Amino acid sequence: GIQVEQSPPDLILQEGANSTLRCNFSDSVNNLQWFHQNPWGQLINLFYIPSGTKQNGRLSATTVATERYSLLYISSSQTTDSGVYFCAVDRENGNKLVFGAGTILRVKS
Amino acid sequence: EPEVTQTPSHQVTQMGQEVILRCVPISNHLYFYWYRQILGQKVEFLVSFYNNEISEKSEIFDDQFSVERPDGSNFTLKIRSTKLEDSAMYFCASARQAIEAFFGQGTRLTVV
Q1: What residues of chain B lie within 8 A of the CB of A102, using their CB?
Q2: CB within 8 A of B41, min separation 6: which ones?
Q3: A10-68 pLDDT, tens per residue?
Q4: Which conformational region is residue A52 in: left (phi greater than 0), alpha (psi within -120 to 50 degrees), or beta?
Q5: CB contact under 8 A, A40 and B56
């Protein structure tokens, strides 16, 4: 099946810093989503981005489908950005999402 | 903003007991899913449901598991005889089309 690798596995930032999280996938995909799992365990949709670039406030994402990777940018990080960031992909339009292992982000004040 | 809601938020059950996890998907969504996340591990697909039937299921989704949409608004996951290894966070998700799934807040199941 499709493999999803996220890097880095852990990241510690000082409040106000910027960061880039990466997601590599092993095959072509029709769906790619980024999620933030907060300390209470909730999975929060950040982006649906099988290709192209999107921005939402301090967050933006870019997927280069031909090169099989996606990047999540966090600018001016805040302590509330802490948590785990997951990339998930689906090869077909069925939402059988395959999740990466996640990037654990800790933002210190 | 519409959201997927799950109840209960936390369920503790004894090994061998049956549990039913409940979900109310977003109202105009047609595709429904269950995922689970064992503590410290990846989120894993369990089952997808469309047009009142299972459209796909993973190897994890064995005969101990079943899903049902008993009415126009609820979507349930039943585990018939829980095992210790069923302890996990269970997420319900829904989608209007078979793209961009929206997840609920999860039910943490603890089997003792």
Answers
A1: 42
A2: none
A3: 999 999 999 999 999 999 999 999 999 998 888 999 999 999 999 999 999 999 999 99
A4: left
A5: no
Tell which residue, B30, B27, B26, B22, has the closest CA to residue B3.
B26
Amino acid letter, residue A30: N
Asked whether B46 and B57 are in contact (CB, 8 A), the reply is yes
Q: Supply B84's token pair.
A: 């210790």
CB atoms within 10 A of CB B9: 14
* Amino acid in the structure at residue A29: V
* B56 neighbors B47 (Cβ within 8 angstroms): yes
* Token pair of B3 as six digits: 């959201």
- Measured CA to CA, the distance from residue B91 to residue B39 in angstroms comes to 13
What length is written for chain A?
A: 109
Which residues of chain B lie closer than 8 angstroms to A94, CB-CB? 48, 55-56, 98
* CB-based contact B42 A94, cutoff 8 Å: no
Tallying the residues shown for chain B, one arrives at 112
Tokens at B11, concatenated: 């369920």
